[in-house]
Amino acid sequence: MGAYGSLKILLRRPELYGAVSALFPWVEDLSFEFQRTQGFISRLTLGRVFGKEAETNNIRSESLFVILDGPCVPQSDRPPLLIVAGDAERWS
Fold it and tell me: What is the pTM of this model?
């Protein structure tokens, strides 16, 4: 989760960084629906961390798409992004 974490930190605190590299990051639009489609162990783990019920689940707030579109990153401070991913990568 290093590349995903790097992007997430950059988007939440763009004023602290001049550049961040993310090679083959896991870029998934996180949602409760995504969580429900995962295997048993992943659902169990994600449920413990983000919540097991749709009404109380907060996984959506960790989506890079939501962070990028949210108030944490003003339009004028949005860094240019270059994300490199191969087409044979499972998560690309």
Answer: 0.71
